[in-house]
Amino acid sequence: MIRYTSDYGVVWAVLNLFGVNMIVWLAALAGLQLLAEEDQSGEPIRRLDRAMVAAAVLASFVPTSTASAAALTALSLYVLVSTTNGSAQRRGAAIALSITAAILWGRVILAMFSGTFLRLDSILVGMFGLKTNDNEVFFAGNGGALGPTFGVAPGCSSLHSISMALIFSTVVHGWFGIKPSRKSIAVAVLAALVVTLINVARLAAIGFFPHRFDDIHGGWIASVIAWATIAVVIAIISIGMKREITCKG
């Protein structure tokens, strides 16, 4: 948050939630709220519990987000296997674990299979009529000063949008205590497919409008698309699971 504010200024940082996706903020708040609920199991705090917490706290002081994310992963998994099925603590841990998919494991998977994911994105961009080669996309008008092509980089992968659908689906399941079903999984998959299409359309827009590259890639148009993606994820999953949410609510 400090680095993002320093790079972009206070106003832009606030408008973009300090560079953290709103769904991640919601997941963090929901997970913390569930984890803070009173434990109804009556089980005493064990020595291993204290050791896990101490290790996680120490890891959080390491000046790299990877250590914190890894500690959160380990602690979430520990809570998942050591708490009562269906308890608020277990549901909160599931949400916390889903956050690590966005801040760590999604990036690891992307790093390991970036070629495959980026080629898939460029292939989908080709459906809009643009020529592609591997992860390179040809500008419709040769790009002018930008050159004839632009590369689909890891930061532009649709995997980031897909992780938002996964996280929000987990938040809804956890917050309302809904058990995963074929329907809820199908709804999450639908949300992932739609946001993938949105991201691919953004990449295609860069190819068709090279003169607006900065705006579409990282400027105000990119921000509008990012907020639209969030709205679509929330709408699809909320509407698709309306019946389950209403019953649990």
Sheet with the most strands, sense and barrel status: 3 strands, antiparallel
Please report the total strand number as a whole number: 3
Broad structural category: mainly alpha
- The number of helical segments is 12
Poorly predicted spans: none
Please give the alpha-carbon distance between the first and last residues: 34 Å
| Helical amount | over 70%
Mean pLDDT across the residues is: 90
Shape: globular
Order of SSEs, N→C?
HHHHHHHEEEHHHHH
Radius of gyration: 20 Å
What is the strand content? under 5%
Strand order across the biggest sheet? 1-2-3
Structure description:
- The protein is mainly α.
- The chain is 71% helix and 3% strand.
- The protein contains 12 helices and 3 strands; from the N terminus they run αααααααβββααααα.
- A hairpin with a 2-residue loop joins strand 1 and strand 2.
- It is globular and about 70 Å long.
- The two termini are 34 Å apart.
- The mean pLDDT is 90.
Brief description of this entry?
The chain has 249 residues and is mostly helical. Helix content is 71%, strand content 3%. The radius of gyration is 20 Å and the shape is globular.
